[in-house]
Amino acid sequence: MNVASPQPLHRSLGLTDEEYSRIGEAIGREPNDFELAVFSLLWSEHCGYKHSRRLLGRFPTSGPAVLQGPGENAGVIDVGDGLAVALKVESHNHPSAVEPFQGAATGVGGILRDIFAMGARPIAILDSLRFGELESPEQRQLFGRVVEGVGHYGNCVGVANVGGEVEFEAPYEHNCLVNAMCVGLLDAGRLQSAGAAGAGNLLVLYGSRTGRDGIGGASVLASQGFDEDSAGKRPSVQIGDPFTGKKLIECTLALIDAGLVAALQDLGAAGLASSTAEMASAGGVGLDVDLSRVPLREPDMEPFEIMISESQERMAAIVEPERWPEVEALCARWDMDATVIGEVTGGGRLRVLFEGEPVGDLPVAALTDGCPRYDLERTRPARLAGPCRFPPVSDPTAALRTLLGSPGIASRRWITRQYDQLVGSGTVVRPGGDAAVVRLTPSARAIAVSLDGNGRRTWLHPRRGGMSAVCEAARNVACTGARPAAVTNCLNFGNPEHPEVAYELAEAIEGMALACEALDLPVVSGNVSLYNEHAGHPIQPTPVVGVVGVLEDADLAVSAAFRETGDVVLLAGNGPAALDGSEYQKRLLGEVAGEIPEPDLDAERALHGFLAAAAAAGLLQSAHDISSGGLAVALAESAILGGVGVDAPAAEWLFDEGEGRVVISARAGNVPALVELAGSLPLRELGAVGGDRIVAGAAVIDLSDATGRYESAIPELMGDR
Amino acid sequence: MSVRVGVVTFPGSCDDRDALRAIELVGGEPAQLWHADDHLHAADAVIVPGGFSYGDYLRPGALAARSPVMRAIVRHAGDGGPVLGICNGFQVLTEAGLLPGVLRPNTGLRFRCHDVGLRVQRPSPWLPQREPGDLLEIPMKHHDGCYFADPATLAELDRYGQVLLRYEPNPNGSVAAIACVTSREGNVAGLMPHPEHAVDPLLGSADGRVLLAGLLGLARTPAAA
Amino acid sequence: MTRVTVTVRPKEGILDPQGEALRRSLAAGGQPVLAVRAGKLFDVEIDAASDAEALALAEQIAGDLLANPLIEEHRVDLAGEERAG
Hints:
The complex is a heterotrimer of chains A (721), B (225) and C (85).
Chain A: H1 9-12, H2 17-27, H3 33-42, H4 45-48, H5 53-56, E1 66-68, E2 75-80, E3 83-91, H6 93-98, H7 100-116, E4 121-131, H8 137-157, E5 161-168, E6 177-187, E7 202-207, H9 222-225, H10 228-232, H11 242-257, E8 263-266, H12 271-283, E9 286-290, H13 303-308, E10 314-319, H14 324-333, E11 337-345, E12 349-354, E13 357-363, H15 364-367, H16 396-404, H17 413-416, E14 427-429, E15 436-439, E16 446-453, H18 455-460, H19 462-479, E17 483-492, H20 499-518, E18 523-529, E19 533-534, E20 537-538, E21 542-551, E22 568-572, E23 577-578, H21 583-588, H22 601-616, E24 622-625, H23 630-642, E25 646-648, E26 657-658, E27 662-666, H24 671-678, E28 683-689, E29 693-696, E30 699-702, H25 703-717
Parallel strand pairs in A: 4-5, 9-12, 17-18, 25-29
Antiparallel strand pairs in A: 1-2, 2-3, 3-6, 4-6, 7-10, 7-11, 8-10, 9-11, 12-13, 14-15, 15-16, 16-21, 17-21, 19-20, 22-27, 22-28, 23-26, 24-27, 25-28, 29-30
Helix pairs in contact in A: 7-8, 7-11, 8-11, 19-20, 19-22
Chain B: E1 4-9, H1 16-25, E2 29-34, E3 45-48, H2 68-78, E4 83-86, H3 88-95, E5 102-104, E6 112-120, E7 135-142, E8 146-148, H4 151-159, E9 163-167, E10 178-182, E11 188-191, H5 209-220
Chain C: E1 2-10, H1 17-28, E2 40-46, H2 51-66, E3 72-78, H3 79-84
């Protein structure tokens, strides 16, 4: 529907009056409609981070292993043996709310392109999902379709999905979160860049043809030239085509192998507008682009539509003219359209032509670095309170049974078995435990990778919640024996122009930065998704953290499953924990309230060091992080995963949640060596592996009952046996 | 003699690289075959690998079955050369008419990825040193793996001993729990589970090596089939 | 009982990956095919008092379930008409 706009075009495009005059100053004249559309997209929060950029500067981004920090398509770290990995997580929340299957699928497609644009072969996908409570049929359908969409794209392109997380909380009911992370492998010396260089080099567009996909807010421009009916037919849903996505991966890696491309950039949000501006900006050059050369899927597209279309499965490359015939031939081998659409210039301007006429002439620096950066007005939310007082847990056995069958804790196998976990022949530790472990064949090395967040904890205390997200993701990685090496993150928040949301954002970033500093974890890439709200109600503030760690010997990877009867079970670490914000509080007491304790970052670091050393010495049979559901659930999960009971009468504070604690098991003969290795880190014996019951302090439950509760909860809700 | 095993890459093949690596691991000489070539680069044996050739569009395997390389594979099979179709490769071989039956969507209508038990039905050169009753554990990962054949075809499969493996338990609704069938001559075999993903105990299982060893063995002594 | 045929097609302008893959595959085989759009066809048997009632119900089912109106368009025909066409 198109109602004649009562306001000036720039406001319809989401630009303020002040931003509009800044654009005029930057280009020295009034912008035309085309130029205004390009500015409106590049100066949006999504592309320009205008509200978050100043806060993001707080993250530590450097370290000896960092080959590429934030600012490129993805971050890259050196993992030894001449190898490097690229990593990034990105949100696709809004498209998934509009069309869950396609939104989730194109979310995976987009993050894959970011990774192979760096010259890396994608080897692992993880997804972090949040919906409303599963008791609602609409939420079940949404959840099911998103999982199918993630699986459809990842399975079809042949990249293993090795993990992630899903949470169900009422604040996400009208604003689900779909964050996808990808990790890619490359030779450390083969890093690609997006920076265009060399005046006279060609700008090549290859992959799918361009249609009117994803022309969202800017479609207001269309209303000026079209009647209501035709404009209403314009689709804004992007359709993912993993088959073309797969060919794009292979074709791109072949182009890089052959040394044919000087720079690479994927086409994502704002399409050609943002990718050409970013390539020119990164290379300090200009670009001339002829939109009439862009292969179109539909006739009669307007220049602005071609410029900002978000059609999927497209890449832009800078190619030296003498290399073009080889590029064209290689793309043809993979049945890919490839077209020269422009060339690099020396001028620092993005000049756009259509049918021989100039349609836009913009200074690149104004589009990218010129994006306004705002300080946010912050107010501490009134809801933030002190810790709760809790009555003693009256029936620990019943509580443990309830928690094991709670959608927040129960097995995620219903999800993960819809994903190909194995393609690529690298998956040493499959999803289901803490972090997945992926071998970097032919090297003996492996990476461990985890993706975690906790909106509930961040809602109760934004700063500690930020710390907590980093600690948990890193600890999950550490549980496999890997040394956490780098972070990528996706910040999912409400409208930052609300001071309380701004406070949450700033505080969560501060907490994450403090934890990253304490754990020596550089943040090498990330994404911000703001304005996640419905009818004025924001989602829980949800920083999602991806951590990659390095394991020198894949053979020494540790899993979360108990292994042998008689193994000694120990609690490593003694971080502060409480029932505030816990799954116990939510499920058994029916509320989320209080204040989560402050993580002890030094103790967290010591714990990770201990786990890495213990795994390297071959002393660990299992290691499992204590998070949702507390110690009792951690013991039960290790038992269920291992198919063997546990007798841990010494366990106490069964359901408290907090950072800095891990359940490990070891052969009895190795316990003295572990104690010595632990030094001042608390290490307490809880009991032993064995039997057919789970005994966690006062909670006692048959292993078969626990397994049934844990494994069947989500399949039953989803109507599968 | 070193056996040269060609692994086909169609647009959309995903497990081709894994199959090449697995062949090397079991002592074969891996060779990449390209869908648009109508010859086999002198391969002694062929693997049609897993993945989503042509995006599984129309029907899984339907478009790949009509590609030039398949003409060469049909000739190779007609000459008694061994061919193994894995997952999408199994679908391609049924679409190409090299194996009986058809693969339909799993009865649960969902993609499923997990290890699955496969019971050996009869002695076969595809399963060297395995006896009827042995159980293999190999991962599967597919959406369209429900094997279907009409009663007359099923009776023929039994008569000619073409069923090598049955699922235990049946994960996808395949008729008679059939997991692996051969052509009547025995030199072409197909299954949905992935032997090439079960060649290294570190990754969960090495039970898949037996089928790859069978493929190499058949290439050395084609008459054995 | 009335037999109704519901045809669901990708909306005009929406990418149809399956149709495009088929077109490329046919073109590679030398067929002079310019475009393929791949849809779905449902034969629905409806217990209705009249054809008009059956068509109205089929229209509702098509809009609510069989087609995703964001990306697909649908068309409802009496089965006899479809055959004649």
